[in-house]
Amino acid sequence: MSGVREVLERAMAGAFAGKGWQGPALLGSVRGVSAAEARARPGGLKHGVWDYVLHAAYWKYVVCLKLGAAERDSFPRSPSNWPALPEAASAAADEKAWRADVRLLKSYHERLVEAVAGMDLSRMNEIPAGGKSVRVLDVLVGIAAHDAYHTGQIQVVKRLVGRK
User: Fold this and answer.
1) pTM of the predicted model, to two decimals?
2) Angle 111-102-64 (CA atoms, 0-180°, nearest 5)?
3) d(CA 40, CA 145)
4) C-alpha to C-alpha distance for 125 and 136, rounded to whole angstroms
5) What is the Cα–Cα distance from 19 to 76, expressed in whole angstroms?
6) Which of 24, 64, 72, 73 could form a disulfide with 29 if both were Cys (CB 3.0 to 4.6 A apart)?
7) Which pLDDT belongs to residue 1?
8) pLDDT above 70 for 158
9) pLDDT category, 64, cuts 50, 70, 90?
10) Which residues in the chain belong to E strands, given as ranges?
11) CATH number of the domain that 56 lies in?
């Protein structure tokens, strides 16, 4: 398993921050997006940018939970998987709430990176608690792919709301 940690860390970093070989990463895809743009669901879409940010944060929490790096029922938003957006308020309050949710995403990403950096590599083939047959290694590869997947969806939504 030598080099596995480095590959995982690089995959998670490339899908989350900066500009990956594939284009924007998750965090970069929301840079400069206003709360109004993030809240929008153009063309009758089920999810907007803000929804994807909360969804990605929630799944990072789930992976942290599987690695023992989070407490059960400690995710601050509900319901799970697709947390509800805060009620629309004044533009200033909405911007503050939007930025807080982007920080929530960053904080769970950082927690996940720390958990991977400190984990015993012999755990990679374990099935995490509450898991069915998916190994820790597959979960970690999957969370990077999850970020990349939703980044693409965010880019589409941004185009539909008139951003490039």
Assistant:
1) 0.94
2) 25
3) 24
4) 6
5) 29
6) 24
7) 47
8) yes
9) very high
10) 19-20, 23-24
11) 1.20.120.450
Give the total number of structural domains in the chain.
1
**Assign residue 82 a region: left if phi > 0, alpha if psi is -120 to 50, beta otherwise?**
beta
Q: What is the pLDDT of residue 23?
A: 83
Strand partners, 23: 20
Is the confidence at residue 21, as pLDDT, over 80? Answer: no
For residue 85 the two structure tokens come to 């957006």
Residue at 5: amino acid letter: R
Transcribe the chain into DSSP letters.
-TTHHHHHHHHHHHHHSSEETTEE-HHHHHTT--HHHHH--GGG-S--HHHHHHHHHHHHHHHHHHHTSS-TT--SSSSSSSPPPPPP--HHHHHHHHHHHHHHHHHHHHHHHHHHHHS-GGGGGSPPTT-SS--HHHHHHHHHHHHHHHHHHHHHHHHHTT--
Which pair of structure tokens corresponds to residue 22?
């594939």
Containing domain of residue 85, as a range?
4-160
First-last CA distance in the chain: 41
What is the overall mean pLDDT for the chain? Answer: 93
Contacts of 60 by beta carbon, 8 Å cutoff, 6+ apart: 105, 108, 109, 111, 112, 143
